[in-house]
Amino acid sequence: MLEIEERYSKRIGLDLNELKKYNLNEALEIAMKKFTEIGMAENLKLDWISENEFTLESINCSTAIVRSYMKPEELTNSICPWGILTATIVNALTGKDIEITPSEFNKIGAKSKLKIVESK
Predict the structure, then answer these.
(1) What is the percentage of the chain residues whose pLDDT exceeds 90?
(2) What separation in angstroms does the CA of 120 have from each of 1, 21, 53, 113?
(3) Domain range holding 10?
(4) N or C: which end of the chain has fewer CB within 10 A?
(5) What are 108's strand-pairing partners?
(6) pLDDT band for position 114 (50/70/90)?
(7) What CA–CA distance (Å, rounded) separates 119 from 114?
(8) CA angle 69, 112, 115 (to 5 degrees)
(9) How far apart are CA 46 and CA 95, in angstroms?
(10) What is the CATH classification number for the domain harbouring 51?
(11) Which of 59, 45, 109, 114 is nearest to 84 (CA)?
(12) pLDDT single digits (tens) 77-104
């Protein structure tokens, strides 16, 4: 297990080895529920576009207040931390690379698009 995965697993009580027992959608739903339980976002919503592509929307995210002080151009090409964490989990569960499109930020959260691709 990667060092970052071990740190997150210990901090939030998420066992990545346990998640490997589920299909990817179920594993991500379990992870999103766990993330909301720690209070960093009110809701994390997954929406599958295709078998290998989905969006992740954070709602009432704790980092939104920080972004509210930033100019939109300061967020150009930025990726929501939840998108990065989710990509890390998907990579750990599938062994595949993840492409993340820059996030769309709003006053209460962000929406990120992730695509699972074959490792290079």
Answers:
(1) 53
(2) 20, 25, 18, 20
(3) 3-117
(4) C
(5) none
(6) very high
(7) 15
(8) 155
(9) 20
(10) 3.30.1380
(11) 114
(12) 999 999 998 998 999 899 999 999 999 9
Structure-derived torsion over alpha carbons of residues 86, 88, 94, 98, reported in degrees to the nearest 10:
80
What distance in Å separates the CA atoms of residue 27 and residue 42, rounded to the nearest whole number? 19
Strand-pair category, 41-50 with 109-117? unpaired
Which of 3, 83, 92 has the alpha carbon at shortest distance from 35?
83
Task: Find the mean pLDDT for residues 53-67.
Answer: 89
- CA gyration radius, the chain: 14
Question: What pTM, to 2 d.p., does this model score?
Answer: 0.87
Q: Which pLDDT score is estimated for 1?
A: 47
H runs (alpha helix) in 1-73: 3-12, 16-19, 24-37, 64-67
